[in-house]
Design brief:
Rossmann fold, single chain, globular, five-stranded parallel sheet, D-amino Acid Aminotransferase, Chain A, domain 1, about 25% strand, 22 strands, alpha+beta, eight-stranded antiparallel sheet, Dna Ligase, domain 1, about 475 residues, 3 domains
C-alpha cells in the first residue's frame, strides 16, 4: 500500500480523497493555488504545497508544478480526482515515468476513451449500439454535409472533454449555421451524433482490477441536467426493469473489456424512450462527481477501491457479491443563479449551515468565511440521501435542502426544492429535457445578450465558464 498520496485537485473531491486516505492510514499532500491557500482540503491534508497563481492553467493544470510537489513531498502516488488533469493521458504518462503510481486507468486507455470518436470506433467491433455519428469535423462545408447524413436533429459534441461542456443541439440547417458562427472548428475538434429528443441519461459504474476481473455496481439516473450538465442524480433508475438493468450492466462490462479497462470508470448511455434502446455515449476514465450515490446503495467505497486497485490489489468481490439496498439521491449545489441562466455567483460565504441527521451525507470543500472563487467550477457541495424507497429518499432530501443555509452567494438550492416538489419528478416521469421544459428555467434567454458581451464577461471569469456561457447562445 502507498505511504503518501498527492491529490492533484481541490474542493470537495480533494476532501473526499483525503478522508479515504485517512481511513487507509495513508498520508496526504494537498496542492493549492494562491486563491486556495486557506481552502478546506489544505487544512485537512497532512502536508500542503503551493503550485502557482489562482488561474487554473498556471496551478491545477500545471503538470510540472504538480510533479515537483510530488517529488519534494515524497509522495509515491498521485490521485487526480475528476476534472483538471484526471483525463490527461500525457500527465498520466509523466506520473508513471517519474516513478510514481497514477491512481486511475492506464494512459493508453485514457487516450482510447478520452476522444469520443476513438471510443466509438473501439466499441463498433463489439456490436454495442450507438447513435449514428460523424467523423471529426474540419470546416463549415463538411459540418453541414455531415449533419444531413447523420440526420436532424443533431448534437455537436467536442471530441475531448466531459461534464457536458461545449455541446450544442441543432434541429435544422439554420440553427446549425448559427452554432457554427460561434464555435471554432479549427481550434476545437467536434463531431455530430444524431440527437435523441426524448431520452434518459443512464450511466453504469464499473470496477476492474489489474488481473482481468471486472464488475459493475449498478446504474445511475442522470437525466436532470441544465446545458447538458447534471443537477441531480439517483440510483437505481426507476425507468429500468430488471431485464433492462441486467442488459445495460452487461453492455457496460462489454464496453470496458473492449478497451481492456482497469481501475474504476463510468460507461454512459442514452436510453431512447421511443423504443427503450440503450445507445453508448462514452466512457469516463475517472471517479465521477456522483459516485456517492453508488456508494450509498452498494456500501462499497469507490475511492478506497481506486487506491487499492492502483496499489496492485485484486478485487475482493465478484458480481454476485454486489447487493443493492434502498434508493439514493444526490443534489449538486452550485454557486449559480438559476434565474439568470445559471450565471456563476462567486463571492464570500457569510453564512454556512450544513444539513445533517440520519441517512444524509454532505460532501463539500467549503465552510463559512471561505470564498467561492471565479477561477474554478461552481460546485460547492453535494447532498446525498438514502432511503428505503425513492419516496423516502426524496423526503429526506427535502429536509436536508431546507437545513442547508448559505448566504453571500446565489445557489441552486431553491431550484432543487422545486424539482423535488414537482409531480412529474415525484412519479419518475422525467427525461433529459425535464429542467428546461417542465421547470422553464430558461425564460430569460441569453440571446438578448450580444455574443461580444458574453465573450467579454466570460473572459473576465475564466475559460471554463466561457465554455459554459457559449452553451447558452442558441
Amino acid at each position: 500500500m502507498f505511504k503518501r498520496i498527492l491529490i492533484a485537485n481541490r474542493g470537495e473531491i480533494a476532501v473526499r480523497i483525503i478522508r479515504a486516505c485517512q481511513e487507509l492510514d495513508i498520508e496526504t499532500v494537498a496542492v493549492y493555488s494562491e486563491a486556495d491557500a486557506n481552502a478546506l482540503h489544505v487544512q485537512l491534508a497532512d502536508l500542503s504545497y503551493p503550485i502557482g497563481p489562482s488561474d487554473a492553467s498556471e496551478s491545477y493544470l500545471n503538470m510540472e508544478a504538480i510533479l515537483r510537489a510530488a517529488r519534494e513531498t515524497g509522495a509515491d502516488a498521485i490521485h487526480p480526482g475528476y476534472g483538471f488533469l484526471s483525463e490527461n493521458a500525457d500527465f498520466a504518462d509523466m506520473v508513471t515515468k517519474a516513478g510514481l503510481t497514477w491512481i486511475g486507468p492506464l494512459a493508453v486507455t485514457i487516450r482510447q476513451v478520452g476522444d469520443k470518436d476513438v471510443a466509438r470506433a473501439a466499441m463498433e467491433p463489439s456490436g454495442i449500439p450507438m447513435a449514428k455519428g460523424s467523423e471529426p469535423l474540419t470546416d463549415y462545408e463538411m459540418a453541414m454535409e455531415s449533419a444531413k447524413e447523420v440526420g436532424y436533429p443533431v448534437i455537436l459534441k467536442p471530441v475531448s472533454g466531459g461534464g457536458g461542456k461545449g455541446m450544442f443541439v441543432a434541429h435544422n440547417a439554420k440553427e446549425l449555421t448559427d452554432i457554427l458562427n460561434v464555435v471554432d472548428l479549427e481550434k476545437t475538434k467536434f463531431y455530430f451524433e444524431h440527437y435523441i429528443e426524448r431520452s434518459r441519461h443512464i450511466e453504469v459504474q464499473i470496477v476492474a482490477d489489474n488481473y482481468g476481473s471486472i464488475i459493475h455496481l449498478g446504474e445511475r439516473e442522470c437525466s436532470l441536467q441544465r446545458r447538458n450538465q447534471k443537477l441531480l442524480e439517483e440510483s437505481p433508475s426507476i425507468a429500468l426493469t430488471d431485464a433492462m438493468r441486467e442488459e445495460v450492466g452487461l453492455l457496460a462490462i462489454k464496453a470496458a473489456k473492449s478497451v481492456h479497462y482497469t481501475n474504476i470508470g463510468t460507461v454512459e448511455f442514452l436510453l431512447d424512450l421511443s423504443n427503450n434502446q440503450f445507445y453508448f455515449m462514452e466512457i469516463n476514465p475517472r471517479i465521477q462527481v456522483e459516485h456517492g450515490i453508488t456508494e450509498a446503495v452498494t456500501g462499497i467505497d469507490l475511492v478506497r477501491t481506486q487506491i487499492r486497485i492502483a496499489a496492485g490489489e485484486p478485487l475482493e468481490i465478484s458480481q454476485k457479491d454486489v447487493v443493492f439496498r434502498g434508493h439514493a439521491i444526490e443534489c449538486r449545489i452550485n454557486a449559480e443563479d438559476p434565474d439568470k441562466n445559471f450565471m456563476p455567483s462567486p463571492g464570500k460565504i457569510t453564512k454556512w449551515h450544513e444539513p445533517g441527521g440520519p441517512r444524509v451525507r454532505f460532501d463539500s470543500g467549503f465552510t463559512s468565511d471561505l470564498s467561492i472563487e471565479p477561477y474554478y467550477d461552481s460546485l460547492i457541495a453535494k447532498i446525498i440521501t438514502r432511503g428505503r424507497t425513492r419516496g423516502d429518499a426524496i423526503k429526506i432530501m427535502a429536509r436536508a435542502l431546507k437545513e442547508f443555509q448559505v448566504e453571500g452567494v446565489k445557489t441552486t438550492i431553491a431550484l432543487h426544492q422545486r424539482i423535488l416538489e414537482d409531480d412529474f419528478f415525484r412519479t419518475g416521469n422525467i427525461d433529459t429535457q425535464f429542467v428546461k421544459n417542465r421547470l422553464q428555467v430558461y425564460e430569460t434567454t441569453p440571446s438578448r445578450r450580444s455574443l461580444k458581451e458574453l465573450k467579454t464577461f466570460a473572459t473576465k471569469i475564466n475559460e471554463i465558464n466561457y465554455e459554459n456561457l457559449l452553451n447558452l447562445i442558441n
